[in-house]
Amino acid sequence: MVRSGLGLPPWDVLHQGVARHTGLSIGTVSICAGAAVLLLWVPIRQRPGLGTVSNVVLVGLSMDATVWLAPEPRSLAVRIPVLTVAVVLNGAATGLYIAARFGPGPRDGLMTGLHRVTGRSVRLVRTGIEAAVLLSGLLLGGTAGAGTVVYALGIGPLAQLFLRVFALPDERARAAGVPPGGSDPGGSRVVARGTADGGRRRAWWRGGAILRR
Known about the structure:
By secondary structure, the chain is mainly α.
């Protein structure tokens, strides 16, 4: 998205705004912001995991490395597909790593925690967060564009879609109201992986509730 030149994601508008005032790279600001967002987990009782720590560190480093390595396309016919692919891949990545159950990243953990506490849908919570962050970034001098609007409106529905697509079998069964190892209303057998360990493999987020919404 940075290289497309069509607008940054809302969080990166915020990171860019902070970077302009501090002289730090946008990736370094992303790491610092991720650590700061973890403080918001305390009142909503979110628990961090390996995925949480990995997200804080690796997203910022990957961003700096990609911006350094990737060429900047000049043709609009190339920049628009680059932007589109970036937004869809971000939604897919959100569904993949949250479904892995090693803990969501700081920003996605805030999303799933607020979803759990408020009972609102993932897409509504995520869109609200993105809008608040975007406004803060603009006030700090970050730049936005058409791609920012596309991302802000699209990432919530995409995250919800890919959370369903990549959900593990036991989460699918729970969302459908089928007991682990039980039968669905149509009589087909649902085999829920990870139910024989006495429930030790608990999700960091209530996957069934997310899938239902």
